[in-house]
Amino acid sequence: NLTAGIVGLANVGKSTFFQAITNSKLGNPANYPFATIEPAEARVVVPSAELDHLANLYGSGKRIPAVLTIFDIAGLTRGASRGDGLGNKFLNDIRHVDGIYQVVRGFDGQEITHIEGSVDPTRDLSIVQDELILKDLEFLEGVREKVEKMSKRTPRTSIEYKDHLFEIEFLNRLEEHMYEGRKIWNFKDNTWTENEVAVLNKHNFLTAKPTVILLNVGVQDYVHKENRHLQEVRDWVEEYSPGSQLLLFSAEFETIYNAQNVAQPFQSAMSEIILEMRKSLGLISFFTCGPLEARQWTIREGSLAPEAAGVIHTDLEKTFISADITKYTDLAELSPPLQESQLKSQAKVKRAGKNYLMQDKDVVFFKAAA
Ligand code: GDP
C-alpha cells in the first residue's frame, strides 16, 4: 500500500486539501472503504472508469478499487531542518511516505495570514525545497560516517569493502549535487544504476521522493485555469524541480464541490491529483474480473507476470504457470453480458509466460500449480 504526504508552509491550505480529498465523492462512496484511519491519515480510492466498466461487463458482485494512503503532515517553517517549530516531527513523518504533495499558496486574501508576509509561491517553493535538501545533507553526513566506520572494520579484500567504498563515493557525489541546491530526485535526470538504487533504497532521503506540486488558487482562478503566478511557478518547476508535475487546484472550490449534491458545471481536480501521484510513483494497474468481484491491483512499472501474481498472494508468485491476458482496449467497447468464448475465438486472450512484462490496464487470469 503506497503512501503520499502533504507538505507545505503553514496556512497554505494543506488541511483544507486533506479534508476535501478525504470527503471527496469520487466514484460511489457507499461501496468503498473510505476510511479515515487517524485524523491525519486517510485512505482514498483511486478513481477508475475502467474498473467500473469491467465490473459491469463481468457482472461482478463487488468492485474493489486500488487505494492511496494520504498523510496530512504538520506544516513546515523556515528552519525546520534545524529543528525549529515542529521541524523534527515533520521530518520524521515525511521520511516514511513514498511520494510528496507539495501544496503552495497562490490564492490572495488579506484575511488569511501568510507566515512569510506576502503571497509569493516561488519563494515558498524554494523555502520548502531548501529545508528538505538541508535535512538530506545533514542525514547524509550521518550515514556516511557510519559507512566509513564500518569500512575500517571490513577486510580490504572482501566484497563488502568494495560496496562500502562505492557507497561513500556515491554519497559524496549526491552531496555535491545537493550543495548546488538540487534534489536527489534530479540527480543525473533520475536515471540510476542498480548499485545506486540499492544505496538509495536503504536511506529514505526526502528529496529522492517524487513530488506533485499543487498550486492552491481561488475559485475563480481554478474555474478559468489561470493564476497571476502560474507562469512564474511553471518556470520555477522547470528550473528547480524538473520532472515534477504541477497541478492547479483550489481547496476552496473542492470544499464547495463536496458540500453540494448537484451535478457541477466544473470538474473536481481530485481524480487528476490522485492519478498523477500514482504516475509519479511509477505505478500501473492490472485487473482481475469475475462474477464475484472486479478488482484493481497496483504494481510497479516494469513488473513481470509472476511478480504481479505475487501481489495477489505470495504463493501465487511461486506456483505461477501462466497468465491469460486481455487488453482493456479490447474490452472497452463491449457491453454485458460478456461472451468469454468469443474473446478466445477472436484471439483477444493471450497466453503469457513468466517473462511477460505487465502493461498498464491488463485484465488478467493467472494459472498456478495446485
Ligand atoms: P494549512 O495550515 O496549510 O493546513 O492551511 P489550512 O488548510 O488550515 O488553511 C488556512 C486558511 O486558508 C484557512 O482559513 C482556509 O480556509 C484558507 N484557505 C485554504 N485554501 C483556500 C483557498 O483555496 N482559497 C481561500 N480563499 N482560502 C483558502
TrEMBL record:
<dbReference type="GO" id="GO:0016887">
    <property type="term" value="F:ATP hydrolysis activity"/>
</dbReference>
<dbReference type="InterPro" id="IPR041706">
    <property type="entry name" value="YchF_N"/>
</dbReference>
<dbReference type="InterPro" id="IPR004396">
    <property type="entry name" value="ATPase_YchF/OLA1"/>
</dbReference>
<dbReference type="InterPro" id="IPR023192">
    <property type="entry name" value="TGS-like_dom_sf"/>
</dbReference>
<dbReference type="InterPro" id="IPR004095">
    <property type="entry name" value="TGS"/>
</dbReference>
<dbReference type="InterPro" id="IPR006073">
    <property type="entry name" value="GTP-bd"/>
</dbReference>
<feature type="domain" description="TGS">
    <location>
        <begin position="282"/>
        <end position="368"/>
    </location>
</feature>
<dbReference type="GO" id="GO:0005524">
    <property type="term" value="F:ATP binding"/>
</dbReference>
<keyword id="KW-0547">Nucleotide-binding</keyword>
<comment type="function">
    <text>Hydrolyzes ATP, and can also hydrolyze GTP with lower efficiency. Has lower affinity for GTP.</text>
</comment>
<dbReference type="GO" id="GO:0005525">
    <property type="term" value="F:GTP binding"/>
</dbReference>
<protein>
    <recommendedName>
        <fullName>Obg-like ATPase homolog</fullName>
    </recommendedName>
</protein>
<keyword id="KW-0067">ATP-binding</keyword>
<dbReference type="InterPro" id="IPR031167">
    <property type="entry name" value="G_OBG"/>
</dbReference>
<dbReference type="InterPro" id="IPR027417">
    <property type="entry name" value="P-loop_NTPase"/>
</dbReference>
<dbReference type="Pfam" id="PF06071">
    <property type="entry name" value="YchF-GTPase_C"/>
</dbReference>
<dbReference type="GO" id="GO:0005737">
    <property type="term" value="C:cytoplasm"/>
</dbReference>
<dbReference type="InterPro" id="IPR012675">
    <property type="entry name" value="Beta-grasp_dom_sf"/>
</dbReference>
<feature type="domain" description="OBG-type G">
    <location>
        <begin position="2"/>
        <end position="279"/>
    </location>
</feature>
<dbReference type="InterPro" id="IPR013029">
    <property type="entry name" value="YchF_C"/>
</dbReference>
<dbReference type="InterPro" id="IPR012676">
    <property type="entry name" value="TGS-like"/>
</dbReference>
<dbReference type="Pfam" id="PF01926">
    <property type="entry name" value="MMR_HSR1"/>
</dbReference>
